[in-house]
Specification:
single chain; 604 residues; alpha+beta; 6-stranded antiparallel β-sheet; 5-stranded antiparallel β-sheet; 8 helices; 33 strands; 30% strand; Groucho_enhance
Length: 604
Amino acid sequence: MFPQNRPPAPLQPPPGSSASAAAAAASGAPQALKLTYPETLDRIKEEFQFLQTQYHSLKMECEKLATEKTEIQRHYVMYYEMSYGLNIEMHKQTEIAKRLNVICAQLIPFLSQEHQQQVVQAMERAKQVTMGELNASIGVRGLPPLPHTVFNSSSHTSLFRLFCLCFLWVANSPSSQHAHTGSQTRTHRQTNWSLSGSDADKSDDNLVVDEDPSSPRSVHSYSSRENGLDKLPPSRKDAPPQASPASLASSSSQASPSRSKDREPLVCSASVHYMPLFAYSFHVSADGQMQPVPFPPDALLGPGIPRHARQIHTLNHGEVVCAVTISTSTRHVYTGGKGCVKVWDISQPGSKSAMAQLDCLNRDNYIRSCKLLPDGRTLIVGGEASTLSIWDLATPTPRIKAELTSSAPACYALAISPDNKVCFSCCSDGNIVVWDLHNQTLVRQFQGHTDGASCIDISNDGTKLWTGGLDNTVRCWDLREGRQLQQHDFTSQIFSLGYCPTGEWLAVGMESSNVEVLHVSKPDKYQLHLHESCVLSLKFAYCGKWFVSTGKDNLLNAWRTPYGSSIFQSKESSSVLSCDISPDDQFIVTGSGDKKATVYEVIY
């Protein structure tokens, strides 16, 4: 307890020992320092206080180091979040630049030959030219100057201004002026181009398009002729674009004069939502040539074609809704989230709470698909587990009556045969497992996909099965002979598909944001470009005349079969992961990333 190198003081002999001390002095022995007991205690007290002072000093230093550590951790978290945000922003701006580059490429064929060469040279110079030189070029044409920074090919603002430059060249070209006498005045009256320096940062919500005041908020309807063809100059209308198929953009042109009185001004921002600038539907011939589709006059007319959809219910599931289905009676909706399926009664208006909860998987595993048999008595559930659950809904309390276990760690999608005897499950290992629902046994497996099988649908006659996979292929299987019939290869992963109940068309939703409608026996197909991100789910109406698709861009799009005229569009507040249509085509249900499902009533 004493400080280092300080010897302890010897204790003084008790009083009365003076004789011993005198004897020691007489013998000449050295006499030690004599301390009384109180002095010894005071000495101990001093040493204790000294150690206590050192302890407090060290404690303060430790507290200071702990504070510095906390501050360093806070800065680390802050810098990490900034780095992550900048990384996301970089990818976003890169994607915007790519799309603007595609728009520029599609504009070029509509210019005169001289202007085409000028634009192509300008795009090539864009990688080296300085902003000062580009400002001088743009200033001549009446556009505001750009910031004096090096022009980078990944700059979406620069590409946007180059796109505006191309647009002005189109508007001022002699051929356009000859074909459209006085059209420039009408163009400026119908289209309000905002070219301020902050265009690239504007919200997509600044784009107001064809909103019907009587229609529900966030649901938009489109003209059947709005595919860009009726906006092209007469001299160009019959001539297909000269751009390569890969460079064709996903947009349609400005409003047609016949609808200009009913349309709000179109404000163009760097990221275009809802109403594209050019054609969004293209016919792809057998040799790969793409041409904008001339929609027929009755594309959005006639029985069975909806006018718009009205949101009637919001079902707050509480977790991300990855799977939805609606009963044949349209009374019950089933929503699959993390570890459970919730049952909702939508037959009555008003706020909703789940009437039952079916705990299917481990609490942390998501439901990926749920299918209800037409009699409404059996529900089949699959997800991030190797087991499918078969639920008996006819009992007062729903219960699991069987479980089907495969070797795959997850099931991504389910389909039921028309006779309700067989279930097909798309597995994460790429296999398609066929189950006998009566005997709860595995019948066979279709093997072919080299990556996870992500989506599935079956023909109405029950003879063909269509599957899409993460290996960029769509495959057709013969259920009678148990073999693969067809394979369609794509350049993007397949996230969703649907087979038309009444025709020979297959709609495919892809990670690249395209929707392609294939003819199953002919090489012709249609390519649709209204989604801005990957297409996560797709479903045909039971009448076969239209279908819906949903995406990571928060959009629900309704399309005309097969050429893809846009019927209506609804934008939700988060990614729309799943959808279903009621058997009577009267209701649409969607599941989204903001932990809710939405029920729409289809208005005819």
